[in-house]
Each structure stands twice: as C-alpha cells, then as structure tokens.
Design a protein that fits this description.
Layout lengths: L7 H13 L11 E2 L4 E3 L4 E3 H22 L6 H8 L6 E3 L16 E8 L2 E8 L10 H17 L3 E5 L10 H17 L5 E5 L2 E3 L4 H4 L3 E5 L4 E3 L3 H8 L5 H5 L1 H6 L6 E3 L2 H14 L17 H13 L10 H8 L6 E3 L7 E8 L2 E8 L10 H16 L4 E7 L6 H5 L2 H14 L4 E10 H6 L9 E4 L4 E3 L3 H8 L1 H9 L4 H15 L3 H6 L5 E2 L5 H11 L19
Parallel strand pairs: 6-7, 7-8, 8-10, 9-11, 10-12, 15-16, 16-17, 17-18, 17-19, 18-20
Antiparallel strand pairs: 1-2, 2-3, 4-5, 5-6, 13-14, 14-15
Helix pairs in contact: 1-2, 4-5, 11-12, 13-15, 17-19
Pfam family, one: Carboxyl_trans
GO molecular function: acetyl-CoA carboxylase activity; propionyl-CoA carboxylase activity
InterPro entries: AccD/PCCB, AcCoA_carboxyl_beta, Acetyl_CoA_COase_Trfase_b_su, ClpP/crotonase-like_dom_sf, COA_CT_C, COA_CT_N
C-alpha cells in the first residue's frame, strides 16, 4: 500500500518499535520528538498524528496475529498477501470508520485492489480481530464503495469472509448495510466475476452475500455457513448439532452443494481462487485471457488414448475425467463442485490456449444419470460460462434422468428444467460430443443440436434413442413377450433378438447423423481436433437479442 504509513521513515520506525518492543514510536532510539509535536529520524519529519496512526496500524496487526494464529487462522492482511501478486495490493480507506485520536484503527473490513496474475481485482477482507469482524454502518459503506469502484473499473470482486455477522449494537442500521451489499452483488452478477472465500464464521443474513456470488470456496476447518446457528437450532427444534455438522465446509461441499471447492487450508482455498480467476475474463464485455500453447508429439499420443478409455460394454463404468484430460491442454482440468452431485462433472480447462467450460456425465457414479442435484450443478455452471464468454464443451454418456418417487418429490421436473433453460439460452459456442449413451430427455438437454448447440459429434459406438434397447423392447414388444411366455418358449432369447434388432435399426448415431442432429461421426482420436476446429470456427459468434423481453422466468 502506498500512503504515509508506508513512507520509509515511518516504516523503519515501526519495524524498530516491533523489534525492540517499544509502544510509542517516539521512544524508539534515534527518533526525536520536537517541540512542535513532530517526530523525525534524521531523514523525514513525522508528525505526531501520523505517528499515532502508524502505532494504531502496528498494534492492530499484532493483535490480529495473536488472536487469529491461536485459532489456526491467518490475519486478513496475511490472506491478502497470499491472494495478490507480490507488492500489488493498494488499500483504500484504511482508517475509514476509525478514531485515530480515540485509539481505534479502523473498521472491521479491509478494502482495496490488487493484481492476480497481472490482472486487476477488487477485494474486501473481513477482519475478525476487530469486533469479531462484525458488519456495521462503517463496514457496509466501505464494502459498497469498493463494489461501486469495481463496477466502474469492470474488474472481478473477491470477498474474504470471516465475520460474526451483523453488529448487534447497531441494530437495524447494520441490517440495512447487508441490504445494500445484497443489491450491489446482484447488480454485479453476470457483469464481473464474484468469488467468496469463507475463512471463518458466516452466519445469519450474512450468508446471502456469498450465496449471491458466482463461486463459494470453503476450508476443511474453521469455515462455517448457516442461517441459524446450533444454539438457535436447539432452542427451536431440540436438535443438538455441532457447527461443523450444521454448516461446515465438508457439509456444504458434499451435501448441500452451497460451496464449490473445499480447501485443505486457507492457502489452498486462496490458490484455487487465483486459479479460477485465471480462466475468467475481468468482465462480461471481454473474452477470457488466452495462453501460449504449442502442440507436441505428446498430444498425438494422448489423443490415441481416447480410443482405449471407454469400454465396449455400455454397462461398464469408466472415469470420464480420463477423457477430459485427454482433450484439454496439458491434461489440466480445474473442477467445480467436485464433491457434490458426482454423477456430473463440470470445470475449467483450455483448448489450444483458450479457456473453456467442460460439462460431462460421470459413468463412474450412478452410470452418469441426471438427478435433481446434478441437474442444478450443470445448469448453474453453464450459466456461469455463458455470462463470462467461455465456450462450453459437453461430453455425453447418460442413460437419462433418474427415476423414482424420491426424485419426483424432490422436484426433478422443476430442477431438471434448469438444464434446458441454461443450454437453450446460452449464446457462447456450444460443442457437444456423444461418447456412448444418450437416451431420452437427457439426450435433448445435454447440449443437443435441437436445444441450441452449434456443433455436435458422436463416437462410432454411441447410442442415441428414446430408450435403451432392453427398456424399449419391454415396452414395444410386451405382448409378443407375453405370448412367448404363455407358449412356454424362451422369452429371454426373444428379448435379446428383438433388442439386437432395435440397436441395429434405432439405437445408433446414424439416424441422428442422417437427420442432421449430429454433424459428424468422429473417431475417438479425433475428438480434441474436432473440438479445436469447431471453437476456431465459432470464435466470431456474437450474441443476438431476439425479443424485447426484460428477462426470462427461469425455473428456480
């Protein structure tokens, strides 16, 4: 930060006071208090008021270190050092909300700007060492000012959350500030990327600040989110539950789906935030950054591996991550919501140096079926990519939507429709590859040509139909099968024969190829090349506003 507190004379005096355990800068040897109230160290005069501010800043950080480190947590400023490129952070309003003469260093939030991989980012970091990081009028005003500047500059906003919530002593005034932040967050949504790192408690209405942002990152320990805490839950329902089991990082990454990444510690969480920002543009008016990429002989060897990953037996599982890594540059893939709704895989990668979003069914988990959770996971990610101009590559291998009363009662109709809404409204380049199975409604919603995909490919062994062969035969030929059973003949043999005939005539990609729903049949080894060529062709695709509507009414 560049201000008077970081001036060489003052910084040196502060460092000496820390080393020598001196409370007042005027007591540091070599620093002289002059009669006019100024202090000097032989190079630059330091006014008493400035010296007092420097002392407060020093004492505040020492207090933060002692309080945070005892809990296994970093201070807000230490976290900022991890987030930003070295020496790039510029703080704004350091003493806003403070009382220098009264001995108060400032508000319980740090705001400013820094660089992540050389690109400007806005940040606000709550400081739990000051009033428990609680939010009052001063903190709310600082955050809103920062967000206004971020919108003016069209740069991402990162929030480092570690707070006890609204400052009770300020009552409605504190709640009002949350309302202001909510509105600013909604205004920024889809315009600039917004990331929230939960590095401590986040409770009550405060949880909706991160909930409105694009990605939520939590840590395995010390990270909690809940609307009502354990004490309130017990008083209201009689249930006894710990903070971790109620709203810890593991719960929100594996059960609720609220969070998108679970960091092993604060450093891991912050590194993930830096990585994600590298794939996203600064705002919705820009394209994602491009990276240098040079094809090598290893790429050809990697492409050949694709022919060996997917088993011939359509009921045998495999890990779709192996396919994804063979398609993306250097095999690098950054998953989003890795631990939630694992029958679907979503995340970021690059194709020939250009960032893309990847959506895939995961045959290793429930055969890659779409259920209520995986539907929302896919829909949310496609909307994120569409908002920030990332092409979407969809890899399809799914038997359909998950059947059962539990899914129907959980809203598979409403929640499954979110996938349709996301793909049908996306205007970024959409490239889809059917790897193996694509049945029923799941075929349509997973980036089909009918729903708006630009280029659709299929592997030679892929199966595209309303139903799988066995299920279709059981419905279409149920009377024939019943007659065979009544006649005492081999029903299974007839079922197999009919299923083979159905597969030959209906469950293959040729019909889709002939009707134009598939643009080309490709060998697995050609997958990366086909995707790269499609993205190059679609690079000039532009958004079109087809109606004068304000916005659609998405199923929520």
């Amino acid at each position: 930060m560049t201000d008077i507190i970081s001036a060489p004379a003052i910084r040196q005096a502060v460092e000496q006071s820390v080393k020598q355990g001196v409370k007042h800068l005027a007591d540091v040897p070599g620093v002289v208090v002059k009669g006019d109230g100024a202090v000097e160290d032989g190079r630059q005069p330091i006014r008493a008021a400035v010296a007092r501010a420097a002392e407060l800043a020093r004492d505040a950080e020492e207090r933060a270190v002692s309080r945070q480190h005892a809990k296994g947590k970093r201070t807000a400023r230490e976290r900022l050092d991890l987030l930003f490129d070295a020496g790039s952070f510029i703080e704004i309003g350091r003493f806003a909300g403070g009382d220098i003469n009264g001995g108060k260093a400032g508000a319980a939030v740090i705001t400013g700007f820094g660089e992540v991989y050389g690109r400007k980012v806005a940040v606000y970091a709550q400081d739990f060492s000051v009033n428990g990081g609680s939010l009052g009028r001063a903190e709310g005003e600082k955050v809103c000012r920062l967000m206004d500047r971020a919108l003016d500059l069209k740069i991402p906003i990162v929030a480092l959350i570690d707070s006890g919530g609204a400052r009770i002593q300020e009552g409605v005034a504190a709640l009002t500030e949350y309302g202001h932040i909510f509105r600013k967050t909604c205004e920024a949504s889809g315009f600039v990327p917004q990331l929230s790192l939960i590095l401590g408690p986040c409770a009550g209405g405060a949880v909706y600040c991160p909930a409105l942002t694009d990605l939520i990152i939590m840590t395995r320990e010390n990270s909690n989110m809940f609307v009502t805490g354990p004490d309130v839950v017990k008083a209201a329902t009689g249930e006894t539950i710990s903070m971790e089991d109620l709203g810890g990082g593991t719960v929100h990454n594996t059960v609720s789906g609220v969070a998108h990444y679970l960091g092993e510690d604060e450093a891991d969480a912050i590194d993930y935030a830096r990585t994600v920002l590298a794939y996203l543009p600064s705002n919705s008016d820009e394209n994602p950054p491009a990276f240098a990429y040079a094809a090598t002989r290893a790429d050809r060897e990697t492409a050949k591996r694709l022919a060996t990953i997917v088993p011939d037996n359509d009921r045998q599982p495999y890990d779709v991550l192996d396919v994804i890594r063979c398609i993306l540059d250097y095999g690098e893939f950054v998953q989003v919501q890795e631990l939630f709704a694992r029958s679907a895989v979503v995340g970021f990668g690059c194709v020939e140096g250009h960032p893309v979003g990847v959506v895939a069914n995961q045959p290793n988990v429930n055969a890659g079926i779409l259920d209520v959770d995986s539907s929302e996971k896919v829909a949310r990610f496609v909307r994120l990519c569409d908002a920030f101009n990332l092409p979407v590559i969809t890899l399809v291998d799914t038997p359909g939507y998950k059947p059962g009363s539990d899914q129907e009662h959980a809203g598979i109709i409403r929640r499954g429709a979110k996938v349709i809404y996301a793909y049908a409204n996306a205007q970024v380049p959409l490239v889809t590859v059917v790897l193996r199975k694509a049945f029923g409604g799941a075929y349509i919603v997973m980036g089909s040509k009918a729903i708006g995909a630009d280029m659709n490919f299929a592997w030679p062994s892929s199966q595209i139909a309303v139903l799988g062969a066995t299920g279709a035969v059981n419905i279409i030929h149920r009377k024939d099968l019943q007659k065979e059973k009544e006649a005492g003949r081999d029903v299974d043999a007839l079922r197999r024969r009919l299923a083979d005939d159905y597969e030959r005539t209906t469950v293959n990609a040729n019909l889709s190829l002939e009707t134009g729903q598939i643009d080309a049949m490709i060998d697995p080894e050609q997958t990366r090349q086909a995707i790269a060529e499609s993205l190059a062709m679609l690079a000039s695709k532009r958004r079109v506003r087809r109606t004068t509507k304000h916005h659609g009414n998405q199923p929520l």
